[in-house]
Amino acid sequence: MTDANWEALSNQTVAAAGVLYFLALLVHLAEWAALRQPAVAGDLVTAGGGDTVAEGGYVGTATPAAPAGAGEDSPRVAFLGRLGLMLTCLAAAFHFVALVGRGMAADPNRVPWGNMYEFTLTGSFIVAALYLALYRRFRLGWMGPLVVGFVITVLMVAVIWLHDAVAPLSEALNSPWLVIHVVSAATATGAFTLGGIASIMYLVRMRAERRAAAAGRPLGRWLARVPQLDALDRLAYRVHAFAFPVWTFAVLITGPIWAHEAWSRYWNWDPKEVWAFITWVVYAGYLHARATAGWKGRRAAMLALVGVATLWFNFIGINYFSTSSQHSYAGLERPAFLDQR
Asked: Which domain covers residue 179, as residue numbers?
């Protein structure tokens, strides 16, 4: 295959992946819609927090059998869940082929991390891949529409605004440290994103439980499928605890080594370097507060969201708002309105 054929294959498989992610999102939303009937007697939320939870994640002390089509274990809902997972796996496979095609389209062949479009493709793929890898370990079926919705949104941004033609690597990127640094940073970014989703759902479910308890009504089926608050809190902590040392390796070890090789200095006060360090400080504070001050629940979730906001601002925002970054090779144009006075 020629380089042009590889690039065309990459573009086509990105489009196919987007369609499959969209179909997976529709299936997951249909699955959630089947769970939106109010919970039956025994599913009432109590303010005391002494509820027991069935395997599916419902709140209640003795959940009776739900009507056909209304419960998570009904054949219809189970089928939709499996179909959504299958479509997500297929979309991730096409997504991976698109990345391979971008690398093979370059002359000479290279890793697909030469511009912001390719970085964004990689970051969104890792979010999907980590979700699929952890799906059974942490029972993440409830996270399907959130993850797929996030990935398809990022893909749309990449294709519409960030797309760039395949080109050789710039001199600063032409280094073995590119693979080590980007793989570790992208892996940590994907894990932090999943932890951020868990933290968001913690806050959403906490508010819903309080409102349901105050009104004396049950928690809706679609939200009752989300794990209990303590389970969400543990999930967020475990994911962040995995991602933090990986981010440390990327930001404080491989990044400075690569910077010294490319620019003869370990630290340049580059805006991306500074924001990467800010992200590191926020997540270090998150883990330290949990370990020493006993921060859990709402405060920990809020701090985690600050961390994921700094993370994604560093990933995309710096390229919009900074004109002095040595990472300008990321390939994102600065909007003209920002230069107007």
From this structure: 3-48+70-333
Separation of alpha carbons 77 and 28, rounded Å: 9
Kindly state whether residue 103 falls inside one of the protein's structural domains. yes
Upstream peptide bond of 75 is cis (omega within 30 degrees of 0): no
Dihedral sign for Cα atoms in the order 192, 198, 204, 207: negative
Burial class of residue 314 in the structure, from the number of CB atoms within 10 Å of its CB (0-12 exposed, 13-18 middle, 19+ buried): buried
Amino acid at 84: G
69 Cβ neighbours under 8 A, 6+ residues apart: 34, 76, 77
The residues with which 235 forms a beta bridge, in sequence order, are none
As a whole number of angstroms, the distance between CA 142 and CA 28 comes to 9
The number of residues in the chain equals 341
Please report whether residue 64 resides in a domain: no
Three-state helix/strand/coil letters over 34-60: CCCCECCCCCECCCCCCCEECCCCCEE
Q: Is 220 strand, coil or helix?
A: strand
Domain annotation covers residue 53:
no
- Residue 59 in domain: no
| Beta strands per DSSP E along the chain | 52-53, 59-60
Counted domains in the chain: 1
Q: Please give the average pLDDT of every successive group of 10 residues along the chain, which has 341 residues.
A: 93 97 96 67 40 38 37 77 97 97 91 88 95 93 94 94 86 82 92 96 94 84 85 95 96 89 81 91 95 88 96 79 56 43 38
pTM over 0.90, yes/no: no
